[in-house]
Design a protein that fits this description.
Elements (H helix, E strand, L loop, with lengths): L3 E7 L2 H19 L4 E6 L7 H14 L8 E8 L6 H4 L1 H15 L5 E7 L18 E5 L12 H16 L3 E2 L3 H9 L3 H15 L4 E2 L1 H7 L10 H7 L3 H14 L4 H22 L14 H9 L18 H12 L4 H19 L3 H14 L5
Parallel strand pairs: 1-4, 1-5, 2-3, 3-4, 6-7
Helix pairs in contact: 2-4, 5-6, 5-7, 6-7, 6-8, 9-10, 10-15, 11-13, 11-14, 14-15
Amino acid sequence: MPSYFAIIAGKDEYLVDQEARECFAYAQKQAGADAEIEKIPALLTRVDDARAIEVQFVDALKTMGMFGGQKVIWLQNFNWVADSVQAKSEEVKESLDIMLKAALEAADGIYIIISATPYDGRRKDLSALKDKVDKFVIHSPAPKSPFDKSDLQAEGQLALVEDCFKKGGVKWTAGAPEAIVAQVGQSTRLVVTESEKMVTYVGPGGTVREADVMLMVPRFGEGDFFEPIEALMARDLDWGLASLERYFFNEDSGRPLLAALQNRLRLLIQIKVLAEAGEFRLSEAGLPKGQFETASSRHGAKFGSAAKSSANLFSQNAWYISNKVAPAAACFTLSELVDLQLACGDSFDAANRGRDEASVRALFLRALAVRRAV
């Protein structure tokens, strides 16, 4: 058995890399200053690459230094357990089996770190070694149950944003850290860099507002353009009209925006109904910690499938609902939310006649210019 064997895997390459670096530093310290260090790039771009990487890794495990001593081997950017055509090929799986078997049979004095990303949680190649290695970490594992909404990665990212703001000497309003995570949360590296950018934008002693984030932070990955929706939910008319100008500068159609707004409204209507039934205690800060989880355990199964859908409030992420969506439910009456949902349908009809921007702008003006008491 090797002296030390660590496997770090996950979908977020930043988190995997950070954890792997800590393991690498630990292994170097344990192996001593005279230990031989070998970093092996394991990024697979073609199936044919697998054999060469396999040979290099196995040779590294078997070849000790000329004067003996310890050896630290880091297999980096290991994408052999991703959801890709290459990773699913029989040739790659065969080489993977050989490499993992060789790692487990490595001699004493060998320290091994494997950092695997992206990671397909359905694959069992690495998880089968969980009880055989010294350290095994999977970032963002699947929920323990269909209605478990814990998201440790998102919570960790929020902590990183707030830590960055504190170090930069800036203040922030409620919702600003969540807005950064919502925009670029698929990448922790971008969460950090965009947080640093916001610190520079407002300057020491300044305050980061959610509107600033939506203006300055581009959305990462797939998804709709959400800034106008955030402005509407904040009941900020100036921000709303300005965000529509930016939206229609880049987009020809208002239908993706209307579809995203309808999805948000479906969630808000469910939140508002549950609040009026006494299940939620709403405020402009959102839901108190733990309240969503309590309601989910009580009512989640009654909402049907746990598949993520705006038609099922309890299929959503807890922090997103509690901190990002719920605050708007305190700013609108149930009647206003229903009226907005119906207005989206009218705007869809107008969009089909080529009047996208005018119809969406009219929707925003009606919603933000008049308040309904009931």
